[in-house]
Amino acid sequence: MNIIYEEADKLSGMIKNLFDLAKMDNNTFQIQKQQFPMLPMLEQIKHKLNPVFQNKNITLTINCKNGIQLIADPIRFEQIIINLLDNAYKYSEANTHVYLNLKNEQGTWKLTIKDNGKGIPKDDLHYIFLKNSTALINQEQEHLVERTGPCHCERDR
Questions:
Q1: Where are the domains of the chain?
Q2: Which of 8, 41, 119, 129 is most solvent-facing, going by the fewest CB within 10 Å?
Q3: Average pLDDT, integer, range 58-84
Q4: 3 state SS of 141
Q5: Are 102 and 111 in contact (CB under 8 A)?
Q6: Strand bridging mode 144-146 / 108-114
């Protein structure tokens, strides 16, 4: 019975996310910033994604110091990280690693996700911030990557 309730919660969340995307398109979307610790948030995301990553025996490693605080919308931040990690999962071979690193470089915090996937050709990088764009990842295998999140980040810059 718990599984039914959990899946109903997930479905409700997905429906809410669709409404939020519609609000973004109409410029009526509100970001709810708050301060939260990074490491517990990243560990929670890892806990959610581990069962999926285990399907391909992909190890997700988080490198983040304890005590780092972020001021952001925690729901949107989680969505962005899950979207990036989902792409890393989709385009990584089985039995590999995905690394999520947070480090301070010259006073600026930098979050990186590194995987063993094919990557995006340099000529297609400019497409990643276009809404609903796709990029050809590997000419021989014709892998397509769909992007729905980063375009909204770029628009707010």
A1: 32-116, 118-157
A2: 8
A3: 92
A4: coil
A5: yes
A6: unpaired
Query: 130-142: per-residue pLDDT in tens?
Result: 665 555 444 433 4
Say which amino acid occupies 43.
Answer: E
Q: What is the largest CA-CA distance in the chain?
A: 51
Residue that wins the pLDDT comparison between 86 and 24: 86
Length of the chain: 157
Q: What are phi and psi of 111, to 5 degrees?
A: -105, 125
CB-based contact 81:48 (threshold 8 Å): no
Amino acid of residue 130: L
User: Taking CA 150 as the corner, what is the angle to CA 71 and CA 51, rounded to the nearest 5 degrees?
Assistant: 80
- Three-class DSSP category at 69: strand
Q: Which residue in the block uniquely carries the two structure tokens 């990584």?
A: 92
Distance separating alpha carbons of residues 82 and 53, to the nearest angstrom = 12
142 conformational bin, left if phi > 0, alpha if psi -120 to 50, beta if neither = left
What pLDDT, on a 0 to 100 scale, did the predictor assign at position 4? 74
